[in-house]
Amino acid sequence: MEFALHLEDTPATRHLWPHPFRLELAVTLTERALVVRMTVENSGAEPFSFTEALHTYFSVADARRAAVRGLQGVTYIDSLRDDTREVETPEAITFTEETDRIYVAAPHVVQVEDQVRRRIITIEKHNMPDVVVWNPWTAKAQRMPDFGDSEYLRMVCVETGHMAAAHTLAPGATWQGVTRFSVV
Questions:
Q1: What is the pLDDT at residue 49?
Q2: Sign of the alpha-carbon dihedral angle for 96, 102, 107, 112
Q3: Scanning 5, 14, 79, 128, which has the fewest C-beta atoms within 10 Å of its C-beta?
């Protein structure tokens, strides 16, 4: 099963962002995976730069017993510490406090391990160089109007995209990024 959403520039969008463009978000559901494909076309005469991210929140039984794997040795930007750059040292990222990091030039495959449900969510990305790992934890969750006070314990956010640096698209050029999600 597949469906696609399309967006093209209009006078209203050009008021917000002054570039001619076409955007398509296509979602394919197969027996074994969910595939999300984002395509951006520069339909104008000038280059433009953009960032993008697939904001994926994964349901876990308990964030304190979940881990993100596959980012060891990768440089990250810590958004909670004045955008300082660090290198991830542990094999698994675990959650005991608010986490908001951009992993720059992350590997092709990252996994979310839900130890309680005994499952692994595999995230495979193509042409989307960065990965964000986020959880608001207690205080931020309580301040967020669209987030229940304890919902942070039942989710882990792992996003793919261009977040550390914008991608520049030449006139007439098309960019496409794909992320595939599967559960074992």
A1: 98
A2: positive
A3: 5
Residue of 179, 69, 158 lying closest to 115 (CA atoms): 69
Q: Would you give the DSSP letter of residue 147? A: S
**Burial of 11 per CB tally in 10 Å (0-12, 13-18, 19+):** exposed
Distance of alpha carbon 87 from alpha carbon 73, whole angstroms: 6
CB 184 within 8 A of CB 33: no
Q: Which fold has domain 2-183?
A: Beta-galactosidase; Chain A, domain 5 (2.70.98)
Angle, CA of 137, 163 and 177, to the nearest 5°:
115
At 98-144, the pLDDT tens digits run 999 999 999 999 999 999 999 999 999 999 999 999 999 999 999 99
Active site residue 55: yes
Which residue among 6, 55, 108, 126 is the active-site one? 55
**pLDDT 10s digits, 15-42:** 999 999 999 999 999 999 999 999 999 9
Q: Is-catalytic flag, 31? A: no
Q: Report CA torsion sign: 148, 154, 159, 165.
A: positive
